[in-house]
Amino acid sequence: MSKAGETLQMDAILRGAGIAKSTVQAVISVDALLQNWRRRAMKRELGHRALQDLGIALELQQLDVLTAIGASVDEFGELANGETTVSSVGERLGIDPSRASRVVSEMVEAGYARRAVSQADARRTVVELTEAGGAIVEAVRAYKFLIMGDFLSSWTTVEVAQLVPLLRKFGAWPEHAQTGVDKFGAEIAALSEQVAVAATRAKAIQA
Questions:
Q1: Is residue 32 in some structural domain?
Q2: Is residue 155 assigned to a domain?
Q3: What is the pLDDT of residues 46-82, one digit of tens each?
Q4: Domain encompassing residue 37
Q5: Which residues, including other chains, have CB under 8 Å from residue 118's CB and lie 6 or more apart?
Q6: 87: domain CATH number?
Q7: N or C: which terminus of the chain has fewer CB atoms within 10 Å of its end residue's CB?
Q8: Is there a domain that residue 153 lies in?
Q9: Closest CA to 34 of 189, 170, 204, 178
């Protein structure tokens, strides 16, 4: 099927589900932008440049752990609350505890983090940034903000004012997933049937 045909088919599916034409095009465009953004984010282009330009001999995973230990509220939200343990580092980064423990140990050994006794529970060990670790986190954040600030400086004040509220509003869309699944159960079942039919045809051709 051609790209034009795929677009028409997608338009028919969404319009048939009661989604407005203007929203259909927005959904297709936003998804394409997000997929491209995700691929670039996975390459961590800016992170690599920051470490290189700042002369920081760390891997990105190690920088991530330092950032998670610092736990900026504007980056980690509610996950930044409370004392930082190895477990909370893993939770903030979405990695398993053993991996978090290994990288935290590397950062302690390198002098960028230290273990301390919890003020709330003397039986618990917490993790803190050392002065050197804090300097790295702040330098990378400043590097990123300088570049982003320069980019946004070319925007109008109205565009800048609208950006954060709209991003925050859009960021809530994954929580809407179950509502959408429940609402479009019939449409999703039909799509599942189409996939099953296509798979059956593919097997028949291979046979």
A1: yes
A2: no
A3: 999 999 999 999 999 999 999 999 876 566 666 566 7
A4: 1-43
A5: 83, 124, 125, 126
A6: 1.10.10.10
A7: C
A8: no
A9: 170
